[in-house]
Amino acid sequence: MGRSQSHRGPDGTRHTTAVDGHAVLAMNSLRIVDAEADFGPYVHPGTGLALTFNGEIYNYRAVAASWDIPLAPGETDAHLVLRIWARLGPAALDLLDGMFALAVYDPRDQKLFLARDRLGEKPLYWRTEGTALAFASEVSALLGFGPAPVVVRPEMLAVETPLGVTTPFEGIQLLAPATVLAFDITTGDVDQHAWWCLEDVHPWAGDGEDYNAALDTFSGTLTEQVPARVPRGDFALLLSGGLDSCLLAYLMRPPVCVTVRYPGQDRLDESAIAATVAQDIGAELVIVEPGIDDLRSALPHITTALDYPMGNASTLSEYMAYRAVADLGIRVVVGGLGPDEFLMGYARHAFSLFGPDASLAAGLEAYRPLAAKLFHPADEPLQPAEKMTRLILRGPDPDGRIHDLAADALRRADGDLSRALTLTELATAWRPLVMTSDKLASAFSLERRSPYLAQDLVELAYQLPAHFKIRHPAEGKRILRDTARALGLPREIWNSREKLGFASPVPTWLTGPLASWADYQIRAALADAPAALRPLLQGGLTHRGRWDRTRMQALMAAAWLADQPVPASA
User: Fold this and answer.
1) What is the pLDDT of residues 269-282, one digit of tens each?
2) Are strands 111-116 and 179-184 parallel, antiparallel or unpaired?
């Protein structure tokens, strides 16, 4: 199982048997913190605790100093985790600021613990078979552990990806973010609980009208936390030309920036801004230009790397950018995930908060098809949960699960709509974004970092009142824009209204030059597809608007089904 994921840690794979012989842990090492670091798994000499670890703890030296834990040359954040766990057990997780998926076996009470970071940056799948439990960073590593028929989850049609802890493989689960699982090997019992909850963070304690005080706090937190994510060696920044990645460029000063543009697609081209930023900070700019042949050749690798289809408008762009970074021999890549979800950066947030008419009049005319989801024939007002549901759905939701998630988010946010929107994002669209980033980067043996997901930043953003995040429908992420302006970034960065990211013309290709190829792939998959997946595949045969993602999702589903070694369940 360990070697099947060796691309995640090409420096070395090692297996370790626990001192009592009841557990075997494996770890693939990608040396980032220390090029001479020992390979894991790691064993604590005093207790026999065994640890396997995937990720990065950014505050590990501070934690070591606070708890008087010595770290010898060649020892890294993983050694800190092992030693602090030996003292505190799962309570040690509260001290860690970073991204991680880890497993600790404690021979003293014969329990295996699995845990994930707060926002699920690092994946961790698990399954049981009889009295045994197996876990891995990728589903593919668990398929040989026992039968796992394909099961099509309804939400794969509703929001393009499974939700919660489910996967499209029967018996294989994804450990939820900020969750610790305890497996008692003597009884086979499994216990899970959340070790951190965003909604437990109290609203902004300051004066709701004192925006400048909040701006000072936010700017200070940002300029402290983001540079702490700068690796010691070379790294690359995914620089789209938008606010989020440009601000990271000025705060982190990467030696290399990578941007993606598509020839002939001027509307999607932000490379001029990227070039200006790269020149300002003295970075090398690498421009990647994917073409239609790249999509055809990359699709099988993308599908394999993701384990199963996930909805993400930037999948091809990210894949090609990571490949370019790997070709440069760089091991760490940084991206700007987070501000859109926590600071109201999506058009659907504006439509929910201000309504469709005001948002369209304010400059979001390009999103009229999205706004149309909120128009009611009887002109009756929609409830907030219904608005959020309609705006995030990309397909049918016959069981009303997405609506239930939105309603639950409103309840957990005590009725605060902006916080509820963040919680709804985390329960739906967030999973494919963060998982795509990790899985595609790992396919090229890269470590992906997302500095905006620092705990202090995330909790502060969630605390803020809505008008600190967005005051004008076309200008979300207000406090981030004002921070960029205060730091002296060029006006064209903080004053830009349109969000592009690494958007691609793939939907246009699939109804144009690649139409016949896409139709053939989808029709071939329909012949043996389970009944539950056929609506998605059949929908992909319809040529819709130029930005519609249905055909791409159907194409990914077709490639995924063709790659499955096990029969599909209906």
Assistant:
1) 889 999 999 999 99
2) antiparallel
